Recover the amino acids of this structure.
């Protein structure tokens, strides 16, 4: 049932189930789980960046399993080729012809693990898939299954053996989040508890395909007032005028901000967007898209800077 003026309580139960299931495995990171879920409900792709060992891959596994969709994990390495992702045509003597063998990209949820360990040529194999939900291989264009999500993890670019994602690739991700180290209580529970891999193996889907489609439709029905659009435009225009940035946020980024704010409002149980929804998703949407201008000091917290610089209308 689509949203009208009040969100139906039944529509919240799948969201609550996903958050509860993820919270039992990813300890002390409810905000990151909510952001991740909002990104996927807004039909976006998610990039999780942090140092090794803080749970990036585990969070991606939890999200993929919770959605109850066909899932493939691709471990990116420096010697990987585009054909390893897209697929390849193989000659078959029985038919005296070539038959295309689809690669792992042909799944509904793709976990691109350590995506920045692959070369730029291999990274680019994801561009068409993420934007068009199709791939062109061996001269033929093939549709990908729907829905189609990419959940990618990457290590910080200063670490050995990484290839920075180009701006065109980063812009395909609706959000980028960081997990950070767990709090003391969460880490103690992690140390004293059951192995996360064992818990992950028992995780059942929290959403059916029908519930996922309904939630995505509900996101599109969340109301955005003209004053909220004024606020989004003011934030975007500020990045374009700010000399500290090499380039401001694009129209695609502005759309991502609106879609993400709608999804965040849905996750929070509202049928309309308020300024706090925009503020909650802004760092995840904007930070990876803004690059310091030559000679400008690198911002420690771009999201906080933007929120402080642009008042709510």
């Amino acid at each position: 049932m689509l949203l009208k003026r009040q969100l139906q309580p039944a529509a919240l139960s799948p969201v609550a189930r996903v958050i509860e299931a993820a919270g039992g495995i990813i300890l002390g990171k409810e905000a990151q789980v909510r952001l991740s879920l909002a990104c996927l409900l807004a039909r976006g792709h998610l990039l999780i960046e942090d140092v090794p060992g803080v749970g990036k891959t585990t969070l991606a596994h939890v999200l993929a399993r919770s959605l109850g969709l066909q899932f493939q994990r691709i471990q990116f390495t420096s010697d990987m080729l585009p054909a390893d992702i897209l697929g390849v045509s193989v000659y078959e003597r029985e038919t005296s012809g070539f038959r295309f063998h689809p690669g792992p990209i042909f799944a509904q949820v793709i976990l691109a693990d350590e995506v920045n360990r692959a070369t730029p040529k291999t990274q680019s194999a994801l561009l068409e898939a993420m934007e068009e939900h199709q791939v062109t291989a061996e001269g033929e264009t093939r549709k990908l299954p729907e829905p189609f999500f990419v959940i990618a993890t990457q290590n910080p670019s200063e670490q050995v053996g990484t290839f920075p994602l180009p701006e065109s690739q980063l812009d395909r991700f609706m959000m980028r989040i960081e997990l950070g180290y767990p709090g003391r209580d969460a880490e103690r529970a992690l140390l004293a508890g059951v192995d996360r891999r064992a818990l992950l193996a028992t995780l059942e889907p929290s959403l059916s395909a029908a519930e996922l489609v309904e939630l995505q439709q509900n996101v599109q029905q969340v109301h955005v007032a003209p004053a909220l659009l004024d606020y989004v435009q003011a934030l975007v225009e500020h990045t374009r005028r700010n000399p500290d940035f090499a380039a401001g946020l694009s129209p695609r980024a502005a759309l991502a901000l609106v879609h993400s704010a709608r999804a965040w409002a849905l996750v929070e149980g509202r049928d309309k967007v308020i300024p706090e929804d925009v503020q909650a998703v802004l760092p995840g949407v904007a930070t990876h898209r803004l690059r310091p201008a030559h000679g400008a000091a690198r911002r420690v917290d771009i999201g906080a800077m933007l929120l402080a610089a642009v008042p709510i209308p």
In short: DSSP finds 14 helices and nine strands in the chain.
